[in-house]
Amino acid sequence: MRSSLILGLGYLLVVALTAMFLQDPAIFYTYAGIFGLIFTGAAAILTGSNVSGDRARANYWISTAKDRAVRGKWVTYCFMIGFPNLLLAAVVYFSSL
């Protein structure tokens, strides 16, 4: 989990340095926001929170406990990569208005 957070923050650092070098905050919130949305969206898809109740119950009973544990680990990884990027992109966007 810590490595995924470091990966997300590393990408954020690269985008921030690029935006500072080019002196354009739009680069930062655009690329960090897209990256954050992709990984946060992947986490939402993997949790199964985008389906109706009957499909969620069917998915639960079809999958094994091991499958649910692996999927939960991937959800955590994707969320820890995407959320800091999404959060800081929103902060930079609203502070530059």
Describe this structure in words.
With 97 residues, the protein is mostly helical. The protein has one domain. It has helices at residues 2-22, 25-47, 53-62, 65-95. Helix 1 (2-22) packs parallel to helix 4 (65-95). The mean pLDDT is 91. It comes from Paenibacillus oleatilyticus.
Using brief descriptors, characterize the structure shown.
97 residues, mainly alpha, 4 helices, DUF5316, transmembrane
SSE blueprint and pairings:
Blueprint: H1 2-22, H2 25-47, H3 53-62, H4 65-95
Helix pairs in contact: 1-2, 1-4, 2-4
Organism: Paenibacillus oleatilyticus
Transmembrane segments: 28-53, 74-94
Protein name: DUF5316 family protein
Helicity level: over 70%
Query: Which series of helices and strands comes N to C?
Result: HHHH
Major sheet description:
none
Rg calc: 16 Å
* Number of individual domains: 1
Please report which band the strand proportion falls in: under 5%, 5-15%, 15-25%, 25-35%, 35-45% or over 45%. under 5%
How would you concisely characterize the structure shown here?
The chain has 97 residues and is mostly helical. It has helices spanning 2-22, 25-47, 53-62, 65-95.
